[in-house]
Amino acid sequence: MQNILKSMKNIAVVGFSPDPNKASNHVGNYLIEQGFNVFAIYPKSVEINGRQTYQSLSEIKQNIDTIVMFRKAEFATELAKEALRLGVKNLWLQLGIVNDEAKKIAQDGGLNFTQDACIMIEHKRMKNDKSK
């Protein structure tokens, strides 16, 4: 987990909802506020909070180092394979999302992998630990 938090800069948030009441919107905006370069993956929207959205990871022209997933667990297996194809270093499945097949694919491919944890909570915890 710490490997991901310390190395992430360009983050694709898969399932970044335009709905401000959704966790993905709250977490995605938190990451933006923290200075990360965040790419919203949400096929039903053109922009979220004035930022361009993307239909898929393959549309992003910059190198992505971290993928944060806010979709149903069954989508994680294919996402892990795509992360490996794209050369992504980190795959994070948000709180409540568990997929052991995706974990095996990611870890066998050398990805840093976390599941069932909130990246915002863990980032805040890491920041608080540094300030002590």
Automatic annotation (TrEMBL):
Give residue ranges for domain CoA-binding: 4-97
The record's listing under InterPro entries reads: CoA-bd (IPR003781), NAD(P)-bd_dom_sf (IPR036291)
Listed transmembrane segments: none
Q: Which domain of life is it from?
A: Bacteria
Q: Which Pfam families match?
A: CoA_binding_2
What protein is this chain from?
A: CoA-binding protein
Q: What is the lineage of its organism?
A: Bacteria, Pseudomonadati, Campylobacterota, Epsilonproteobacteria, Campylobacterales
